[in-house]
What does this fold into?
Amino acid sequence: MAKTAATEAMPAQSPSSLCARYMDVRQCSERYCAPLNIEDYGLQAVAETSPAKWHLAHTSWFFETFLLKPYCPGYTPFHPRFEYLFNSYYNGIGEQFPRAQRGLLSRPTVEEIYAYRHAVDKAMGQLLDGQVSKEIAARVELGLQHEMQHQELFFTDLKYNLAQNPLHPIYMPTEKAWRTDEEPQDICWNSFEGGIRLIGSPKIGEHENGPFCFDNETPQHRVLVEPFSLASRPLNNAEVLAFIEDGGYNNPTLWLADGWAKVCSDGWQHPLYWQHIDGQWFEFTLHGLQALDPARPACHLSAYEADALARWYDARLPTEFEWETAANELQKTNSQNNGVSSQFVDQGHYHPSANHNESLFGGVWQWTSSAYSPYRGYQAAAGAIGEYNGKFMCNQLVLRGGSCVSDRRQLRASYRNFFYPADRWQFSGVRIARDRRD
Amino acid sequence: MAKTAATEAMPAQSPSSLCARYMDVRQCSERYCAPLNIEDYGLQAVAETSPAKWHLAHTSWFFETFLLKPYCPGYTPFHPRFEYLFNSYYNGIGEQFPRAQRGLLSRPTVEEIYAYRHAVDKAMGQLLDGQVSKEIAARVELGLQHEMQHQELFFTDLKYNLAQNPLHPIYMPTEKAWRTDEEPQDICWNSFEGGIRLIGSPKIGEHENGPFCFDNETPQHRVLVEPFSLASRPLNNAEVLAFIEDGGYNNPTLWLADGWAKVCSDGWQHPLYWQHIDGQWFEFTLHGLQALDPARPACHLSAYEADALARWYDARLPTEFEWETAANELQKTNSQNNGVSSQFVDQGHYHPSANHNESLFGGVWQWTSSAYSPYRGYQAAAGAIGEYNGKFMCNQLVLRGGSCVSDRRQLRASYRNFFYPADRWQFSGVRIARDRRD
Amino acid sequence: MAKTAATEAMPAQSPSSLCARYMDVRQCSERYCAPLNIEDYGLQAVAETSPAKWHLAHTSWFFETFLLKPYCPGYTPFHPRFEYLFNSYYNGIGEQFPRAQRGLLSRPTVEEIYAYRHAVDKAMGQLLDGQVSKEIAARVELGLQHEMQHQELFFTDLKYNLAQNPLHPIYMPTEKAWRTDEEPQDICWNSFEGGIRLIGSPKIGEHENGPFCFDNETPQHRVLVEPFSLASRPLNNAEVLAFIEDGGYNNPTLWLADGWAKVCSDGWQHPLYWQHIDGQWFEFTLHGLQALDPARPACHLSAYEADALARWYDARLPTEFEWETAANELQKTNSQNNGVSSQFVDQGHYHPSANHNESLFGGVWQWTSSAYSPYRGYQAAAGAIGEYNGKFMCNQLVLRGGSCVSDRRQLRASYRNFFYPADRWQFSGVRIARDRRD
Amino acid sequence: MAKTAATEAMPAQSPSSLCARYMDVRQCSERYCAPLNIEDYGLQAVAETSPAKWHLAHTSWFFETFLLKPYCPGYTPFHPRFEYLFNSYYNGIGEQFPRAQRGLLSRPTVEEIYAYRHAVDKAMGQLLDGQVSKEIAARVELGLQHEMQHQELFFTDLKYNLAQNPLHPIYMPTEKAWRTDEEPQDICWNSFEGGIRLIGSPKIGEHENGPFCFDNETPQHRVLVEPFSLASRPLNNAEVLAFIEDGGYNNPTLWLADGWAKVCSDGWQHPLYWQHIDGQWFEFTLHGLQALDPARPACHLSAYEADALARWYDARLPTEFEWETAANELQKTNSQNNGVSSQFVDQGHYHPSANHNESLFGGVWQWTSSAYSPYRGYQAAAGAIGEYNGKFMCNQLVLRGGSCVSDRRQLRASYRNFFYPADRWQFSGVRIARDRRD
It folds into this structure.
């Protein structure tokens, strides 16, 4: 049986007890918010990019709704309307405040939301003080994974929201020179054999002490993979520049029809956040506006751009099954290079660094050609918690690998992220693949 | 020559020197913002309702742009990008940051904007220290009138922005009981003779020490007014309730075609801010959600609603010429009651109170049937400052009289406010009129 | 009392009896449709431009609804659903098929609609055979005037609908050379005295055998008009070209704010129907695509363009009261030139010809600066027929004078046409005015 | 090697020579249009539903563009602008007239379009008179398959366009009673083994005289299919009624998130074309408005509805690989029932009939859960013709089986149709599937 080796390879950094891990993850959310001004907490430029405040509240809502209310007899909700205000999309819980208007909630204030967090944390501390049932432990684990996902969204949403400001606000100043001196490395092609592969993870609880996975990674099931090659690293900015200079954004024959429609309607001429000023290319980052570094991975690409770039390079996007196969293989054969060795947000890096190794994890999420669909035999959990993943299995594509703003404890070979092909505000890039015909 | 009697009737409350008046008006803006949380400063629910922060900055921009830059040699702008960020609509100055995105400017922070204000105030203090030319004095006066207008917009925009929040945030708690005990007074009809009337104000500078007026009130010119009657007070909530209960919002024959289209597309069933909860009517106010008081003037009506209400009451909207005629007449004949005696925002009233007198000023702005058009002979000022009023003279209707959140020093018989007929977020109501045929 | 002199000046071309006039007007609608292909009858490019078929049916619906149903006992409607399908906007009659979808009614077919027309005509013929009551006669007259208005709309809507076709379909070939050889005449300024003028027409029925007028022209009432000058002819294409070449469409200071917003959002760079092909200007007309003739009146201008053009020429739009005053004056003083002497649609002219005289009538409708408002004392008719004009008295501007595609029997000094300031698909132009200060 | 058995099972009805087949298919398009009025030819209710006229012209354009222009030296295009007007989406050929405005092309007239068709047919007859190259033959074959696809679209588009008309126009009267007397048969579950299956067709030209297939069916490739069961027939109207009566359209837990958003935004409460009138259900059909027949297959379902229905029935949509596996299996084991035995449009049936057999073909297209993606190794053809299928491989789902308005000569096990999950105007239904776990 395939192991989700990536997780094992990552050093366990989490404290020993569940309660300690809870506090650790929760404090991390607040630590990430520390550089913000109060004014930054409420920004929401489009429906998709929720305010920082809202992320802080919603993650607390998750624990209140799915742990405190059902498992703490006599628990009094912090505020009677928060169930409505901070419900994201769980119809099983009730109606939701309209997503596009989250930025209009100046009240509760930031201070009140921190008070909410701390009240939830206190109650959770009591709940987790001592022995907890398997059911509670599983829900707490899900809540922590959920919070880590929202920490990542905090960064992507914040970036988008700050980017609307012509003053180019800086989330975190950069210490070192932005541009890499070294020449970008050429892409190498790693070859993989075909065969029937086990994809995904066993269901949670099916084995003792198994690593966490989301329900959308289950059940583990067989997939026929044919021989393929996968690029040693994502396409970098230099390679996207070459595409631009060749007229790639003006050549319909390179694009999917829906992608070309988007290029035309939205006037795409370069990746999101790129700016061409006085003949020079810049990129807006969480470190402010920076000169474009050719050696860094291209990011904030839609799947349409990823697909057009792949076509221009006479290649294609990998399937998610190929990607997972490669991740599992590389882990086995080359354990030291293929762990998660990129630089991450918890190390103060808020932008993908130039790739020096073969790791599939970190840097940028990698678009696959696979529609986000249920695995054969997939069953969503019962009740409202079953709305976590399953109902989104339409119209989206799977991305793999994680980015610099992911929590590296979440990255593993079977992890499936998913966005609409036109979405560009995630740290999404492209690692190209080819059929192997030898 | 017609006197703009209302202004004279109002006791001069302003300090003697221009500089002192400058500081007084400027501090007023900050005093109105004092009850806000930092989070409230950035709210913008729709393009029309600018954030409080933006009002604070834009009014400073006005002095920086039209006084400090041209008249203070060597003046260094506070920030190179503020000219762009806080320009409202002056094409003569340059491009403008998109209006609908003002709420996305978390930077400059509130603190930085106060620093901007204070830097401008300091420089203005130096400019106004001593003798100033007539030209400068006139521009300062315009800047102060402009700032008073934005103080009013601050309240109307804030109200709209807070109203989006289901928590019903309170700008200012109310001290006394909200509902009036007394029965609403019946409407009386005041009759006015016809004849040729002088409408508007003489041009600024045409007479010494004349009261201020905006260019859209000039030139004073002759208008033929036929005999008419005007209601002694605006329609109150009880009267709008009667309209609602008679099916007024569902009867197309009462409405202008464009109004009915709006009723249907936006589902209007009552004035803005009214809520029907468990069989009872409430109204969102700057004092929070309050039980609807039948005796208070109905406000937040569009001109379409005002027109339909008037029709239902077998009456019509007055023309702006009738209104101004009435204001001038009443002032002459009944000086003690027809001054500005309503309760105002500077006295801690942020909602129109039940009317106890015949004043045409304050309470609610009163829609007229008059299109906002240039007076015969109107000339906009030269340069960018000429964009202040003139270019909006299309598609809007004139409102007269001022509201509780106006600065009462601005209210005068000739003052023309203007909004689109569908607009409802101002404190706008309806005082009905009739032809007199006797 | 003012006479609506224009009407008198026009030779009575109508047959003596009401029934004969009925048949004459009705046949005219069909004659105008004769050059169409069946396929042309159904075109509707935007909600405003109804299909030719729909005009044919709706005008018949008018007679069926307002004459045959109430006055012909036992009359059986031609089709039970036509009341719904061909009701334009009369809420008093009932619901209406959505305006924007009229082009989707392939059934009833053109043939069936002609059958409907002829059935209505037959029944009307019986109703009008012999003595008819004053009430019926008045309604028939209104129905005929209504049909003439729709004949004009037939041409404007058809032109817009055909203009969408890159093949430049020709409604009617032109026989003569399109471009005028002569130099365009310079504009002269006609001066008019100020004073109190009678504007509008007496109410229908208030005098015997008075000429027809719509209710929106009533009651006749006094207006104070100040001395003014009016251009001897509308601006012509050469003058609009000069404006274009001076950057008029790219200079915000020339435009009303709402106009400039439209210029930007819709990319206006020239009047509707103009095309710039290989360095040469063309104009799409009902005679096909033609080289732009500098001497012809500019048409298909919005009021925003009219206003900007006037400003550029250091002039302004006239008020509707000035225009009507001028029309009445010119008629009195100069009867032979100021009748309706332009070339009209009933003479095979479907485009305004170069102006050779001083007539205010025909050629192009002339935007005024007057909002379309009720005259003092205006009362809409009772019942559904009262929806004809009154409910549109908001947001629109008055145009005066009529165009080449008007029925010249309708043109008179008091006739008020009205459209939204952004509308361009009518034959609308601009005759500029100035204050007279001598 | 897997045979695309369905095609073989279908009796060859086509004339022997390519030229005869050409004429046969081409005449079929005209025969289908015969019942139309001229007015019906131009209808286009939404961008997706092209006018009948346009289909007639575009299919001719295909032969003109891809056969006559390249292979007939000296061929003069019928009209210089038709290349632009009737190009659907081939960027390789040039710009296209905007899709949403096809209904505005009253010219060329229907008669002119028939003239165009006949001119193309004449030239094609000359081209096909005698021996033709393999390349030409392949293109002609593609053109004929293309025309058959447009014949199907003609019906689906026409139905949608006619459905906008409240008169319920009838394309073809029905002869027999609409409602079936018999009770609907219960669904049976057909079981299929798992294993590696060959999916798709060999590339065209890879074997002699192979049946036609589109490039999106190639290359034939291996897919791992796990054991599954497939319903013996599509869900019928009675079953959808049961879903409605159970509140299925108001229960978010049954729906994909994007589907539920559509249910809410568009107010879906039943399949497209259903109407609830005075307590009874009706269905608009090409035979006019008919009482809903419980025994007929439900059609005009979006994939969202199909998915929700499947979930409610404790089942799921099949993958396209399962569907193709089933089609291939059933053909082998049960040749007499599993051919294409439903009633088709060429037999005068324009609505799916109640299913009396086990055939997977005809009746309604069956949504699969498979994203429309390229098969492993897929290569689009070179040049503009390569835009036929490949560029649409994103955001759409595969449907299988064909409908009553398909050309039955096209139906085969490997045929992939594709639409967006929200699309409802095709004859699309749902055949549910289940995992087999025995």
Observations:
- Residues 33 and 52 of chain A are 8 Å apart (CA to CA).
